[in-house]
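re: ur question from yesterday

yeah so i grabbed the chain u mentioned. its 347 aa long if i counted rite. heres the sequnce exactly as i have it in my notes:
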Amino acid sequence: MAQAIEEPKLSCSGVWKLYGPSPEKFLAQHGGAPDVEQVKAAGYIPAVVDVDLEVMPGEILVLMGLSGSGKSTLVRCLSRLVEPTAGDVFFDGVDLLGAGEKELIEIRRHKMGMVFQHFALLPHRTVADNIAFPLEVQGVDRSTRRARAAEIIDLVGLSGRGGYYPRELSGGQQQRVGIGRSLAVEPDVWMLDEPFSALDPLIRKEMQDEFLRLQSMLQKTIVFITHDFDEAIRLADRIAILYEGQIVQLGTAEELVTNPATDYVRKFTEDLSRDKILTVGSIMAAANGDAGPVDPQNPIRSDELVAEVAARVLTTDDAIGVVDPQGRVVGSVDRSRLVDAVYGAAR
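ran it thru and got these structure tokens back, copy pasting raw so excuse formatting
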């Protein structure tokens, strides 16, 4: 029996967002596909340019780019907080651009969670009441709201602080309340727009750890915006890099580093710690006869990060055999190959 092909949870095709007079007319005059220079020459601002994108169930897709590259506008188009100029957006197979106002409100209330850089907590409400607010809007009864808020407070690591007010919390704790509020409705898709960028570096790392812990339990479908590549590497299954409203490359962090599609992508990745991104499989020599000794107790696997095996490789003069996750010998790695992969691009 053929295996069913997994459908995207959220997708869009041919999405445009132009700012200026009569943008729909302008697109129609250019066959729906003007180039960016034509858009600018006509006096329009190209916020999102002909974007095709699929987000699979349980995936963390990170959107990256410089300020003004269209990250936030694209996410708002996907949720229809901003109306696209053209294109299609589908959520669980539902045509969001064709959805009526009532249907769209229901989808946002029950199936989408959103977290933004600014917490926007209600200052006169306690932590518990802030988290329960979306349920109150839904008309959920008070006892159910309180019970759900208590669960969320524990989930986001704020036990004992349900009765606190926002002013009594640190920045990181306030952000946890914002995250908890977005989770209260148990959304299918979670959209986060630079949620940690206003936090101090140590708190930011703690929040990333918390985010990954939550995702390991909840397995949400997530679109996450950041301008920090280190953050993207920690969190993302795939990364989409935007430039002037266009997705110029979409792939894993390793694919972006080893095969940048443009100079823009190359500049984004050139200062990264490559050993924490590249896998052994991406730098090894393919097996050809004797691949070198394999430690049966602690073999080097092709899916391990280079940083995890560097000490073993650098302290021997010989090539070491590499096995795949099933234990089959698939290649070898030696000191020269590792050094060239990690530092060669910088020379």
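noticed a couple things. The mean pLDDT is 89. also The CA atoms of residues 80 and 96 lie 7 Å apart.
anyway ttyl
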